[in-house]
Each structure stands twice: as C-alpha cells, then as structure tokens.
Amino acid sequence: MTQQDTVTGSSGTVDQPSPMCTDAVWRLPVTVCRITQFLSERTADALLERAIASTGDTLKPSLIRDRELVPDIRRSRSRQDFPVPELMAAIDEVLEPIEHTLGVSCRNTEPDYSLNAHNDGDFYRAHQDTAARFAPRRLLTFVYYLHRTPRPFDGGELRVFDAALPLHTETTGRWEERTWRDWPPEHNSIVFFRPTAWHEVRPVSCPTKHHADSRFAINGWLCSRDPAHREDTGL
C-alpha cells in the first residue's frame, strides 16, 4: 500500500479510505399497478364515444394546479364534468389489492377526476401530483386510457421516474441522471401509483390532428374527504 492509499487518524492509526464514491445515487423503482382490458369491451367503447363527443366548449386548455395555464409545462385539453360511474365502480372492485400493493389506505375517500385529450404535439412535463393545495388529500393517482384502434397516434407514454436518492447527505441527485420506465397508453388499460411519484406524459404525434384520433384519458385521484364534508356527513 502506498502513502496515497492510506489516511492517518489522530490516534496515529492508519485507516483505509472508503471505496464508495461520494456522488453515489440510490435508485428506487416506483411501483405502478397496471391492469389491461379493465372494462368490458362494450363499456370501454361507449366511454370512448362519449370522450370523442366532448368537443368545442366542453374541452378547455389544461391547467396546472387547477388554476394556471402554462403551455411550456402542460399542453392538452380537459373537461372536469365528465361523469364515469362505470369506471369508478370498477376501480372499487380492485381497490383492495391496489391498496395492499401500493401501501395506501383509500377508505372513506372521494374521487376527483377529469377527461384529458392529447393531440399532435401535446405533452405534460415531469411533475408530482402533490402541490401544496392538494397534497394533504390526494392518496392515490389513477389514469384510464381510451383511443381508437388501431392507435392513431404515436408517443403519449406515461413516464414514471425512479426515486433517485443520494447516499451521502452532502450531495444531491441531478434530475437528468434519473432512470425511468415508460407505460404505453393502451386502450382500456388503467394505471395506479402514489401521487408523490415524479411522472410525465411524453409528447404525442397525431398526424391527422383530428380530435377523434386523440389520446384520451381519465386522470384522477382518490382523495381523503374535505373537512367541510366530514362535518356534513359525520365521517
């Protein structure tokens, strides 16, 4: 061992330096629950037709934090009043194993969701569903996909980033160094994950630019009940 390979402590003993790099980053895959062919074919097709029928004034430019229009971060169109009781009923049927897998309890929750349409050039940059206004209530994120077949667009994958944690508190992992997994927006499939996960919608290429050829999705959350609602219901 050479002089450069050793470190002498205050006691006079010679300590071998740690072989671990001080910039080491611990990457933790984020758990995503994905179910294909989630609804019956007839139900899924009916939902798709209702989504396609949402045009004109019913679809508005999508906002971030439900109040800011920032086209450099999010570009798509959304509709808040798009009831999907058949989808909510199906989610209730699978909620127990989803809760167990993701380590979250969704008892006494209420859904909050919207219809979203991505067409040519649309996207949503990397973000979490935990803005200060919503973080205390959102417990579970879900995204249900609808589109014509064969798929009339390319892209639009849900990219979920692995957690990247520094092994040394004096260092921080850089965003561009993170790893990820892409989940395809397959018709009649649904994904569930924790709202704390960093995720994005990859850019969509839709050559026809027709509304009916969009990437449709029901994006939503299961939320703890608003305190005002608790007073009314006794929960």
Task: Characterise the protein shown here.
With 235 residues, the chain is an alpha+beta fold. Helix content is 16%, strand content 32%. It has helices at residues 41-53, 85-102, 227-233, and strands spanning 7-8, 14-15, 25-28, 33-35, 60-61, 74-75, 77-79, 109-118, 123-127, 138-146, 154-155, 158-161, 163-166, 180-183, 190-193, 199-201, 204-205, 215-224. The strands form five sheets. The protein has a seven-stranded antiparallel beta sheet with strand order 4-15-10-18-8-7-5. A five-stranded antiparallel beta sheet has the order 6-9-16-12-14, with no helix packed on it. The longest helix has 18 residues, at 85-102. The termini are far apart.
Q: How many beta-strand segments? A: 18
Rounded mean pLDDT is: 87
Judged by helices, strands and strand pairing, the structural class is: alpha+beta
Name the beta content range.
25-35%
Q: Please give the share of residues in helix.
A: 10-25%
- What is the general shape? globular
Name the helix and strand elements from N-terminus to C-terminus, one letter apiece: EEEEHEEEHEEEEEEEEEEEH
- Whole-angstrom Rg: 22 Å
Strand order of the largest sheet: 4-15-10-18-8-7-5
End-to-end distance, in Å? 69 Å
The residue ranges in which pLDDT falls below 50 over 5 or more consecutive positions are 1-8, 229-235
How many helical stretches? 3
Biggest sheet architecture:
7 strands, antiparallel
